[in-house]
Amino acid sequence: MSKTIFLVDDSATILMSVSAILGKAGYSVEKAGSAEEALKKLNAGAKVDLLITDLNMPGMNGIELIKEVRKLPAYRFQPILFLTTESQQSRKAEAKAAGASGWIVKPATADDLLNTIKLVLR
Amino acid sequence: MDELTATFIDESRTLLAAMEGGLLQLEQADAGDDNVGGIFRAAHTIKGGAGVIECRFIEAFTHIVENVLDRVRAGDIPVSPGLVSVMLACCDHIGALLGVLVAGQPAPPQEVAAEGDALRAQLGQWGDDDGQAADCADGSTVPLSEAVTASGGGVVSSDAWHISVRFGTDVLRMGMDPLSFLRYLTTLGEIVTIETLADAMPDAAEMDAESCYLGFEIRFQTRAGKAEIERVFDFCRDDCALHILPPQSKCSDYLQLIQELPEDAMRLGEILVRIGALTQAELDAGLAAQAQPTSVEFDGDESGARAPLGEILVGQQAVRQEVVDAAVLKQATVKDRKIAESRMVRIQADKLDQLIDLVGELVISGASTHLFAQRSGLSELMESTSVLSRLVESIRDAALQLRMVQIGETFNRFNRVVRDASRELGKDIRLAITGGDTELDKSVVEKLGDPLMHLVRNAVDHGIEPAAVRAERGKPHQGTVRLNAYHDSGSIVIEVGDDGGGLAIERIRAKAIARGLIAEDAVMSGAEISNLIFEAGFSTAEQVTNLSGRGVGMDVVRRDIQALRGTIEVRSTEGVGAAFCIRLPLTLAIIDGFLVGVGSATYVVPLDSVVECIELQETTTGRNYLNLRGEVLPFVRLREMFEIGGDVPARQNVVVVQHAGQKAGLVVDRLLGEFQTVIKPLGALFQHLRGIGGSTILGSGEVALILDVPALLALVTSAEEKLVSPAPSRGRPSGTPDSQHLILQPSE
User: Start and end of every HPt domain (chain B) (predicted)?
Assistant: First the structure.
């Protein structure tokens, strides 16, 4: 049974391109265009093996989302990755403190992305 | 072949030679660790290079050799003659594999592969793959190993990485499963052993089910570097205690890499990160620790001084002490070496050849300018052209000097030949080398290898008698083969001698008669008979051995030497020894010549062979001899010899020439003085001509022929001998066998 990856990003381009890569690699992909939308879906009991979120989003940002997700009993121990850039080193620590498992540095190749996912997925 | 491969092959050949030299030294005397280290490094560099050009068969074989050498270096394996022999055979095999690479074959052919397998089997006796833990030879690393052992009971294996990781208690709460890291690790390599440590696990009552208390000691086999391994633990690096210790073999890799780093001034940390011994994160941690004054420092003698980064890194178990030491040494030597290297310039051979060609043209046009200046009668012009020609002469000498190399390197190669051959034959033979610093043209040195090989092998095989015979003759048990080189009147003389049995004159004579080389009743001196061994198809070895005696030896040697405008002769005393003497011209391109005129023709005599010039006093005997201060001097009339017409002038001159201790006179019309001669080879059409060695262009644009003095001397001598002896062919010397023209007997 294929693993489900929940992708949260305000950019439709990113959602489309990343989900294409993940789909091709055999993962099921759930998408959300904002942190609020993502939380709503998770609260509704969506089955997710891995959450990948952008940090900079209008409204609730990625770090707040990670904190909220960690409060949900079903997702306390699920891996969470965040998308970041080299210039956001300080936010990396912040996100880790919020409970993120790891990160993907943008721009990333498809291989980088898939390798990182392979590492954190059970 | 691409440039990288060519570089690799070139470099590897040099390294193999160094390895071989080191191994031979190792056998003779315990030359110390440095020597073993050098041998190891050579093997190691070849392996590394093979990896870079992705030549797997060389890499794989050299890797095994390297492993054994590493253990020799560490003192695990004692040096034994058996080991050295196998190692030398391995050198040969690597050489053969390089040949395969040069030939562009994707894999070694069957016989080479079989040879490799046999050697692998032999190397197996030194157990290169056993699981014995090989600690660093360097005592300074022992505490480190102990620390690892104490913390986890893991053992630092000789060829596996050791990863020690204690996960942070929050790792599960971060959404990470420790197993994920281990699983991901296997994508980089193979986990050989893994030990789970639960020491940190508290009593059940106090245990938090959501915390992680585990640690792992992992032996990990991989081709990946330290940074790659560290990247696996990237996400938990900040929260866990991670130590990645390189395998033993990697340790020496680092040392090698340090050696190979470009000669840039670098900081210690930079060096270690560059070679992969240290990751950037480890360096950052080390630097942070350095910036913070620690209690140790306050207690220390040098209060206020910061601990060196190297010490901190070793303390943090980030790198091994010996790697730090090597890096520090590298730092120190970078400056010195930079200075030394700037004194040497490597240059392509064809650029040099081009320079020599141009200098040749310069000499010719200089001569022409000089000639016209003389004709013009302008004293100022003449003066300036004579300055010019002196300068040209200096340039010529300097340019030719560029091509000169010492023959020592070529000679040293024969240490191995003599050693192997004498072992095979069960003889005890040493090679004595003298005159290794004698310089000669590089192109000549290259072509000398084969003939010398023949001569040395012959000396070992046929020359030196078996031990029993030597004892009977009262000679020392150990036979001696000598290689010697020296300058002699414009020639280079190379001698290959032995203190063996010498040539068996009667056997050679009998054989020569049997082969139809000489008439049964021929009257010949001992030296003449000795030199018959240079005739094609001549071999006196009763037993054909592996080494020589195939009957193709000496005539090939003579042909090789002749191709270099040289001569070869043999001196032998039966029962005492034999010596082969090779005479070669000093240079192949430009010589100092002496210009003489006969009728309308002009000839050049190499100045080195000219002794003196005298006026010819016509004798009444009609024989071609004259009395030179009580000495009998045979001479030849060039006018007759080259069939030049015209009237004989009233005064004729004799140019007395000398070669290999023998003198003769050349009768010419005019003496024209010294002349810088650029040798232009004669075309194939003229190659059969005797007495002419080449041609040159005079300042006037005319062509002059260069006389081949050795050949002329031989003509003179043999012609006179024919006159004296009752041999059938009286008269002109053209009917004598080829050999006697070019092989000279010493005047005894």
Answer: 1-101
